[in-house]
Design goal:
By secondary structure, this protein is mainly α. It is built from ten helices and two strands; from the N terminus they run ααααααααββαα. The chain has a two-stranded antiparallel ribbon. Helix 1 packs antiparallel against helix 2, helix 2 packs across helix 3 and helix 6 crosses helix 7. The radius of gyration is 34 Å and the shape is elongated.
Length: about 220
């Protein structure tokens, strides 16, 4: 007799709230409250099952839900922040424009940059290396280095552009060239170039006077 009585009480609760002029949502909530209070075990079994099914359905549509608490909390979300690259875009990057500096041709720029990026597996690098379709082939890059979060570097046709170098990085470049027996002149125009200028100058002072070497600053 328990189940029929509980169902009857829940139905009467719903009807009573509606008859009293209450909106449907609170009336249904009151009817469900009767069922939950009378049968708490059913709620304990049904809730985890419902959450598992909801997370599974979300995964089928490409929505990853980390935990059940996140799913339950989603009802109160009023702001959604979206990552752009690969989330609301296709993730297939492409070069849409080439703007060489004065004195550099489009083909030469693509050849040099494409040669460096061809050695990398990054999605952006793959887009730049697509210059192969326009040039036919790309030259090999020597001394290739992948710089996480910064890009890549390499030597194409004998010409080591180093961008975004911090003051300490510039010193390291100067010292590396000197360690390989190179006579290095450094040209700079700011305080951040000071350590590299000093490194080149120190080496310059140790060479013979008949060697042509200057440190420009």
């Amino acid at each position: 007799m328990f189940v029929p009585l509980v169902l009857t009480a829940s139905a009467l609760t719903l009807a009573g709230w509606l008859a009293a002029g209450s909106p449907a949502e609170p009336a249904v909530s009151a009817a469900l409250a009767v069922l939950i209070i009378a049968c708490p075990c059913a709620l304990g079994l049904a809730t985890p099952a419902a959450l598992v099914v909801a997370c599974g359905r979300g995964a089928q549509f490409g929505i990853f839900i980390k935990g059940y608490q996140a799913l339950e909390a989603s009802r109160s979300v009023d702001t959604i922040v979206l990552d752009k690259t690969g989330t609301v875009t296709t993730g297939a990057m492409a070069v849409t424009g080439v703007h060489p500096a004065a004195g550099t041709g489009r083909e030469e720029l693509l050849r040099r940059i494409g040669g460096v990026e061809d050695a990398s597996g990054h999605p952006v690098a793959a887009a730049v290396a697509a210059a192969r379709a326009e040039l036919g082939s790309l030259p090999p890059a020597g001394g290739f280095r992948s710089l996480p979060g910064l890009g890549a570097s390499g030597v194409v046709g004998g010409e080591e552009v180093i961008a975004g170098a911090l003051p300490g990085d510039k010193v390291a470049v100067i010292q590396d060239l000197q360690a390989r027996g190179r006579r290095v002149a450094m040209a700079g125009d700011g305080v951040n170039d000071g350590p590299a200028l000093a490194a080149a100058g120190d080496k310059a002072s140790s060479v013979r006077q008949d060697e042509e070497l200057s440190c420009l600053g």
